[in-house]
TrEMBL record, chain A:
<keyword id="KW-0732">Signal</keyword>
<dbReference type="GO" id="GO:0016020">
    <property type="term" value="C:membrane"/>
</dbReference>
<comment type="similarity">
    <text>Belongs to the MlaA family.</text>
</comment>
<dbReference type="GO" id="GO:0120010">
    <property type="term" value="P:intermembrane phospholipid transfer"/>
</dbReference>
<dbReference type="Pfam" id="PF04333">
    <property type="entry name" value="MlaA"/>
</dbReference>
<keyword id="KW-0449">Lipoprotein</keyword>
<dbReference type="InterPro" id="IPR007428">
    <property type="entry name" value="MlaA"/>
</dbReference>
<feature type="signal peptide">
    <location>
        <begin position="1"/>
        <end position="27"/>
    </location>
</feature>
<protein>
    <submittedName>
        <fullName>Putative phospholipid-binding lipoprotein MlaA</fullName>
    </submittedName>
</protein>
Automatic annotation (TrEMBL), chain B:
<dbReference type="InterPro" id="IPR019546">
    <property type="entry name" value="TAT_signal_bac_arc"/>
</dbReference>
<feature type="signal peptide">
    <location>
        <begin position="1"/>
        <end position="28"/>
    </location>
</feature>
<dbReference type="InterPro" id="IPR042245">
    <property type="entry name" value="Tgt2/MlaC_sf"/>
</dbReference>
<dbReference type="InterPro" id="IPR006311">
    <property type="entry name" value="TAT_signal"/>
</dbReference>
<protein>
    <submittedName>
        <fullName>Putative phospholipid-binding protein MlaC</fullName>
    </submittedName>
</protein>
<keyword id="KW-0732">Signal</keyword>
<dbReference type="InterPro" id="IPR008869">
    <property type="entry name" value="MlaC/ttg2D"/>
</dbReference>
<dbReference type="Pfam" id="PF05494">
    <property type="entry name" value="MlaC"/>
</dbReference>
Length: 248, 201
């Protein structure tokens, strides 16, 4: 056990050593992006990948008729991920969440035929995902720099570190034999592609219709991620008294 | 973070009206019931357009009219223009406002089509600073329900919403980023940006 955990812990420490940077609210507009030039290059590359591969494949499998099959794939992949969420919630001392997800996993694995269906949601045990990025947030680590990862897209130093650690947090990956444990990862990728097809218009709006898709996806990611984490540090409210609306 | 149900809030606000008044000195008329009914009306108006089955162009015009009726458009336009608003002439400001409101009608109108067959339910109203937050849940077909919230104030004398959040993503910031990028593309030329805005969305 100790050897298993020493790897992620070691990697976390390496990742976070570089992470002693301002969090939201400490930079103008709540954005800390010192590697913007590099990130923009990666963004252009990601856009090309999206245009040539992700978008066409995603629309083919996730749009229209493919929607039903994709729901099954996404249910199955998400159920395989649930034990990882439980581990993270335990690490966050979120026992309520851990119990909720344990029930969810039990119901979906049994009645939901190994996770193909999602009967748990119907009885009120809705999806409540977590990851090691959130664990780091709960433990008080700063968000760090914004970064756009190749293929994977928008992230932050803290979330990228969390993603690496999450390769080790799912207990199923220690229990399942070697080829089977990669099935989950593969299906997760397929489910992601399906989502790309399903939300085609929305993603297209950000990537292809906005004046600066890099700035727009950065803004959207940071706001949504902070909302998920419950991080209220970024206060963008400007009182109507402090804004000159004369003439508008 | 504590959430209040409507009933809790009403009880709290009647028993401690004085607290509410100190929290919002210049907004004494701000009323949680009015904030809630504004959003109820807004949701009903949007649903009516979606159900009308009109052409896309006609729907966008309807959405624009809804936005003009229910939103504090001058605050939203001023926020979206940000510091660049300070160097704009009044003619530019009013041209920008106009182009911006139509742009919002087109942009969000095309998103609302995804709401066909879905519904928004108003959950609760809670006071924040000098305004109210009305939170709603969007139930779309085959989707996990998600939160859409509105910020409502009566700064103009009427209850109007001045910001909208979809799962934490804020309309004001999104559009300020967009307008800022459009200005950068045009080397800061406000007139050129307004022309681009008329074609965007």
């Amino acid at each position: 056990m100790s050897r298993i955990f020493s790897i992620p812990v070691f990697m976390t420490l390496i990742g976070l050593a570089a992470c002693s940077t301002p969090g939201p609210g400490e930079a103008p507009d709540g954005i800390f992006d010192p590697q913007e030039q590099t990130n923009r290059r990666i963004h252009e590359m990601n856009k090309t990948i999206d245009e040539k591969v992700l978008r066409p494949v995603g629309t083919a499998i996730g749009g229209g008729e493919g929607g039903g099959a994709m729901t099954v794939v996404s249910n199955f992949a998400s159920n395989l991920d649930t034990p990882g969420t439980i581990v993270n919630q335990l690490l966050q001392l979120d026992f309520e969440g851990a119990v909720h997800n344990t029930w969810r996993f039990v119901v979906n694995t049994t009645i939901g035929l190994g996770g193909l269906a999602d009967p748990a949601t119907m009885i009120g045990l809705t999806e409540d995902e977590s990851d090691f990025g959130e664990t780091l947030y709960v433990w008080g680590f700063p968000e760090g720099e914004y970064m756009e990862l190749p293929v994977l897209g928008p992230s932050t130093e803290r979330d990228a570190t969390g993603m690496v650690v999450d390769l080790f947090t799912n207990p199923l990956s220690y229990v399942l034999p070697s080829p089977e444990k990669y099935v989950g990862t593969g299906l997760k990728a397929v489910a992601k592609l399906g989502k790309r097809g399903r939300y085609a218009e929305l993603v297209d709006g950000v990537l292809y219709d906005s004046a600066d898709s890099y700035a727009q996806s950065r803004m959207t990611y940071l706001q949504n991620r902070r909302y998920e984490l419950g991080d209220q540090a970024m206060d963008t409210y400007i009182s109507p008294d402090d804004i000159d609306t004369e003439g508008f | 973070m504590t959430f209040m149900t409507r009933r809790d809030f009403l009880a709290a606000s009647t028993s401690s009206a004085a607290v509410l008044v100190t929290a919002a000195p210049s907004w004494a008329a701000l009323d949680p019931n009015k904030a809630r009914s504004l959003i109820d009306d807004l949701v009903a108006a949007i649903n009516k357009v979606i159900a009308s089955g009109k052409s896309e162009a006609a729907m966008y015009r309807d959405f624009e009219a809804i936005f003009r009726k229910y939103a504090d458009t001058s605050y939203i336009a001023a926020y979206a223009m940000g510091v660049d608003g300070r160097r704009a002439t009044s003619a530019q400001k009013s041209a920008f406002s106009d182009a911006f409101i139509s742009y919002i009608g087109r942009k969000y109108g095309s998103r609302f089509r995804e709401f066909i067959g879905g519904r928004l339910e108003v959950n609760e109203v809670r006071p924040l600073k000098d305004f109210f937050e009305v939170s709603t849940t969007a139930y779309l077909r085959g989707e996990k329900p998600f939160e859409v919230s509105f910020h409502v104030s009566d700064r103009t004398g009427k209850h109007l919403f001045f910001n909208m959040f979809i799962e934490g993503v804020n309309l004001l910031l999104t559009e300020r980023t967009e307008v800022g990028a459009m200005l950068d593309k045009r080397g800061g030329n406000i007139d050129a940006m307004i022309e681009d805005l008329k074609k965007a969305g």
